[in-house]
Amino acid sequence: MLDFGRDIVQNSPWVIPIVLVAVWYFFLKPRIDSWYDEKRAILPPPKKATRKLKKLAIAGELKSFVKEYRRLNPNLSIREARADYNYLRGDLEDEEG
Asked: What does pLDDT average to over the chain?
């Protein structure tokens, strides 16, 4: 009776692929999707961007976005911060609509 689980694995070639798919779907896929979403709405190369910037753009908080943007990119102007805010907002709206 104790070998019932072992018999299923040894005699059923479909058990291991199903287990692997389940592990991938429940544990790896959410991480891959979140990584891909983070990399999609990114700023051009000389500018630094973080998850916090993306979250602020999603929330529509311009003032907080500009503060965080200027902390990350001190040599760039407030106009550029607003332009990048609008750029990220436009990308996010395109994805939604």
From this structure: 76
CA–CA distance, 95 with 74 (Å, rounded to integer):
29
Q: Please, what's the b/e burial string for 18-49 (b: 16 or more CB within 10 A of its CB; e: otherwise)?
A: eeeeeeeeeeeeeeeeeeeeeeebebeeeeeb
Tokens encoding 46: 């000389």
AA letter at 69: Y
Helix, strand, coil shares, percent, the chain, to 5: 75, 0, 25
Q: Identify the pLDDT of residue 32.
A: 54
What pLDDT, on a 0 to 100 scale, did the predictor assign at position 1? 47
Cβ–Cβ under 8 Å, residues 68 and 56: yes
Q: Position of tokens 């990114």?
A: 42
**Could you tell me the residue ranges of all domains in the chain?**
1-40, 44-97
Cα angle for residues 80, 36, 31 (degrees, 5° grid): 130
- State the DSSP code for 24: I
**pTM (2 decimals)?**
0.55
